[in-house]
Structures are given as C-alpha cells and as structure tokens.
Write a structure and sequence with these properties.
Helix content: 25-40%
Structural class: alpha/beta
Mean pLDDT: 96
Number of helices: 14
Bound molecules: pyridoxal-5'-phosphate
Largest sheet: 7 strands, mixed
Low-confidence stretches: 126-134
Oligomer: single chain
Shape: globular
Number of strands: 17
C-alpha cells in the first residue's frame, strides 16, 4: 500500500487531500485493500457507485460492449447512445440529451445552451455593433447561481460555483455570473430580469454540505424564470438518479426544470455526463456548436442502461427512501443526545453537523474502524452510501458515530 501512495505523491499532482488508503477491489458496499481488509463504503465514490461497487449487471453490460465496440467518436451512430438518451428523456424532461464525460462537462453544455438560447431569443446574429463580428456578448447572457453551490472545476463551471475560496486562485473568471444566497426569494427577484438567460440550482447542495432548498424558493425560481424567459436549470449531478429516494430530486418538489444535468452515478462509475433538455430547448445547440470526442461512447452508455434498469425496478426507489428515513431517524437520536447539532438531507443523501469543528477527525477515526465517510467542511459529515446499502450497515455506521462523538 505504501508504494502506491508514494508513487502518487511523486508523480500525481497534489490537487486532492487523499485518505491514506489504497484499494484494489470493490464489491457491493465494500472496498478492499491489498491485504484484503474490507471497508464499509459510505462515500460511494462521491455518489458514483450508487449501485454498489462492480454491480454484476453493470459489469456485464460494460464487458459485453467493451468486447464488441469501445468507441467510434461522434462522427458515427452507435446503438447504446440513442437507447440511453431515449430512456433518460422518457424518464425525465421528454426532450433531447447531450452526452459528455463528467458533471462539469454536463454543466458546461448547459451554460452554453443557455447563452445560445439568450442570443436566439433577442434575435441577435452574434455580432454586436462596433465590436467586431462575434466578439460581444448578447444582452441576455447573465446566469444566476447560488452561494455555496458546486457545479464543477472547469473555468465555466467554476465561474458558476459561488465559493470564493475555490474561485480566488483562478481569476479572472467567465463574466456574466451573479450569485445569490439560497432560499432568499427577494434576492433572487432583485437580480432576475430580462438580461438573465438562466438560473442554475442544485436542489440539494451536495458539496456545500447537503442543504435541500425550500419548496417555496424553488417555486419562486420557476415562476421568475418563466416571467423573464430565462431557463431554469437543475444540476442533478449528485442529487439525481435515485440518490434522494426519487429518480430525480425535482420530483420531491413537483417542479420540472427546462434543462437538467446528470453525471456521477449514471454510468455505474464509468465516466459519463448528460445534459437533458425539455423539448422546446432540445435544438438550441445545432451542428458544430458543441462536442465531446469521447462523449456518449457505447461502453458507459451500455453501463448507464443497466443502471437505469436497476433504478427503475419495482420497489427499488421505495427501498432507498425507506433506508434513508431509517438512517435519518437514527441520526436524529444522536441529535437528541446532543452529539450532533443538525441532521439534513433527502433519501440517502444525508449529513450531520457537529457541535465542534472535528469532522476531519471523525472521518479519520472512521477509517481506523474501516468505515469510509466524507466531510464537506470542518463541522459537517456527509453520508452517500450505495443505494443498495443494508439496514445493518446503516446501524454500524451510526453506532460508530455515537461512540466516536461520545468520547
Ligand atoms: C460532482 C458535481 C459536479 C462536478 O462533476 P465532475 O464529474 O466532478 O465534473 C457538478 N455538480 C454537482 C452538483 C456535483 O455534485
């Protein structure tokens, strides 16, 4: 194990504060190190492994496709991409899908779609007077996002990610973004006007610490977007695909977006991102306007079809909701005992706040006990178990927390 870690330290850029453990195998809710130790995984690769590690249906679909045809690039048609797009469309917004390879790329596409939509709506030809063809922005280009949100690490999505510490080293950012505090309807009203082409929301802020938005706020955002002909975009990269106990988090709110982005668990831990549009916005991006050489390749799409089959199997999502409710009820007991100060989340996307800024210590203590947890800040521990988690595993993790937080 140490040789793996040393090699990383020497040859891989130090952008991650990795836990001091290396894994060689995964199965269901467990990861295994070289010595064969099993670790109970309540991180699930930050919600990429929602079906558990190496789910047999996902492995089989990917293996069959891998041996048949790996990728052709997007100059040609292949079957799995069309099938996955149809499946996602029928399960969600009913329009068309653009495939990429990650959450950031799915959001990049949404940002470009929104900018193009704003330009089309004003009837602009892409050239503003006096500035040279195609160099000036349209008058409907502004994009509103929420403080404490997370949309990715590329320059475009970083500009959408209203977290000063993440943005500061890389300024100047992409112009045209405006940030407002979550759940503040008046603040959103103040900045939303005819110059706005999109409002982008995470219905449950994930990296920000698992904060679900208020129902009234999402309703207000829908209304304001409609009034000002702005697109309402939901970033469901983390909250989507069963994580919250519904297939998409927007189902909890009963409000549909104009565009939705997916990634993380879509390919059963293989890299794939999807930007999903409602029918009205499905042809905003035309030939040559956007692309991805790898995007929507047959292997991750075949895996994605297997993932969606599992997710839509009868009672699967009901079980996710039940397990989420169960874990939440156990965490609420920790709150009654004064060991945590708040419990938040939807379904199996949960977090607790600690009375003291010791979340990193809790994560380290969990690793000692061969339990994988993640903290989003000094005082917030997040739980993203595979959706196939069992009640006994949930009990084990909460018992660990109770012991660790009592001492
Ligand atoms: C993880 C995440 C992203 C970025 O996805 P990558 O695949 O890391 O680029 C974007 N939005 C949300 C809500 C996320 O949780």
């Amino acid at each position: 194990m140490n040789d793996i870690i040393e090699q990383y330290e020497k040859y891989v850029m130090p952008t991650y504060g990795r836990q001091q453990v290396a894994f060689v195998r995964g199965n269901g809710c467990y990861l295994y190190d070289e010595e064969g130790n099993a670790y109970l995984d309540f991180v699930a690769g930050l919600s990429i492994n929602n079906m558990g590690h190496c789910h047999p249906a996902v492995v089989k679909a990917a293996q069959v496709q891998l041996a048949e045809l790996i990728n052709t690039c997007n100059l040609y048609y292949t079957r799995p991409g069309g099938e996955l797009a149809q499946r996602i469309s029928e399960l969600s917004l009913g329009g068309k899908v653009f495939f990429s390879n990650s959450g950031a790329e799915a959001n990049e596409c949404a940002i470009k779609l929104a900018r193009k939509y704003g330009r089309d709506l004003l009837g602009g030809d892409g050239s503003d007077s006096g500035c040279g063809a195609g160099t000036a922005s349209s008058d409907k280009h502004r994009i509103i996002t929420l403080e404490n949100g997370f949309h990715g690490r590329t320059m475009g999505t970083l500009s959408a990610t209203a977290q000063p510490a993440k943005q500061a080293p890389f300024k100047p950012l992409l112009p045209g973004f405006m940030y407002v505090p979550p759940d503040d309807i008046n603040a959103l009203k103040t900045v939303t006007d005819g110059g706005v082409c999109a409002i982008i929301l995470e219905l449950v802020q994930g990296e920000g610490g698992v904060y679900p938005l208020d129902q009234e706020y999402v309703e207000a955002a829908r209304k304001l977007a409609d009034e000002h002909h702005a697109l309402l975009i939901f970033d469901e990269v983390q909250s989507g695909l069963g994580r919250t106990g519904e297939l998409f988090a927007y189902e909890h709110y009963g409000i549909k977006p104009d565009v939705m982005t997916l990634a993380k668990s879509l390919g059963g831990a293989l890299p794939i991102g999807a930007t999903v549009a409602a029918p009205e916005y499905s042809d905003v991006l035309g030939p040559g306007m956007h692309g991805s050489t790898f995007g929507g390749g047959p292997v991750p799409c075949a895996a994605g079809l297997a993932v969606l089959n599992e997710l839509t199997a009868p009672d699967f999502l009901t079980s996710v909701q039940a397990k989420g409710d169960y874990m939440r009820s156990l965490l609420e007991k920790l709150k009654v005992e004064g060991l945590v100060t708040e419990v938040r989340g939807l379904g199996l996307m949960l977090a607790v706040d600690l009375p003291e800024p010791k979340a990193a210590e809790v994560v380290a203590a969990a690793l000692e006990q061969k339990i994988l947890l993640n903290n989003t800040s000094d005082s917030t521990v997040r739980f993203l178990p595979p959706l196939v988690v069992e009640e006994g595993m949930i009990e084990q993790v909460v018992e660990f927390l109770q012991t660790a937080l009592s001492s």
